[in-house]
Design brief:
Layout (H helix, E strand, L loop, with lengths): L5 E4 L4 H12 L4 E5 L7 H6 L7 E3 L5 E2 L2 H11 L9 H26 L9 H18 L13 H16 L1 H6 L3 H11 L2 H6 L13 E3 L4
Parallel strand pairs: 1-2
Antiparallel strand pairs: 1-3, 2-5, 3-4
Helix pairs in contact: 1-3, 1-6, 4-5, 4-6
């Protein structure tokens, strides 16, 4: 039985990225198993048959295979920066995260992978995604983070997807009418937390020396 949780992850996956950040900030050490999505290990499928990342396998054997649930689990163990916030902040944050994980993620996929969605112009997908960007811009108009003066669960849950959106056409994003959003995104990407969890690791294989990822401070 492993003494620390096992995390199946893929560093460029926004769902995995946000889970890694929540685990790190909570001080939870995990045995990182970096996954090559084109060659998923059988141990991942055994833990979670749907075969998506992230997957957190606890020492008890319990498996958590939804990123939001992993974030909630980690922060309920320890929340040193108070990412969960007040009841009011939790409600406001959940509304934003629902919009991100639902409609915005769909528009992002259509914008980023137009060949998969024949019949929908890229400009149309971007325009639909901008509706959510406008919401975020309004939130950030008078404060550095989505819910106030400090980063929260909502910021960490959402920014990896905005990052992906910005990378589809960086020139457009650089001149788009979202200066507060660009500043917020840069602040999070330039953070020590982001750097800490975004190291490159080889794909995991059975028998590999364990890689422990976690905040040792």
């Amino acid at each position: 039985m492993n003494s620390v949780p096992i995390l199946y992850s893929f560093r460029r996956c926004p769902y995995a990225m946000r889970a890694r950040m929540a685990l790190w900030i909570s001080g939870t050490q995990v045995q990182l198993r970096e996954v090559e999505l084109k060659a998923k290990p059988s141990a991942l499928i055994a833990a979670s048959p749907k075969g998506t990342v992230p997957v957190l396998q606890l020492p008890s054997g319990k498996v958590i295979d939804e990123s939001r649930e992993i974030m909630d689990w980690a922060l309920n163990q320890n929340d040193p920066e108070h990412w969960l916030g007040s009841t009011q902040q939790q409600t406001a944050g959940a509304t934003l995260i629902d919009a991100n994980d639902g409609p915005f993620k769909g528009h992002l996929d259509r914008y980023k992978y137009p060949a998969r969605f024949a019949g929908q112009p890229t400009d149309s997908a971007r325009a639909q995604g901008e509706v959510f960007l406008q919401t975020l811009e309004r939130c950030l108009g008078s404060q550095p983070f989505l819910l106030g003066g400090q980063r929260s669960l909502a910021d960490i849950a959402i920014f990896p997807f905005v990052r992906q959106f910005s990378l589809v056409d960086p020139d457009w994003f650089a001149t788009s009418p979202y200066p507060h959003l660009r500043g917020w995104l840069s602040l999070l990407i330039d953070s020590e937390l982001y750097a800490a969890v975004m190291g490159k690791y080889p794909p995991w294989s059975e028998g590999q020396t364990p890689i422990i990822l976690g905040n040792l401070a």
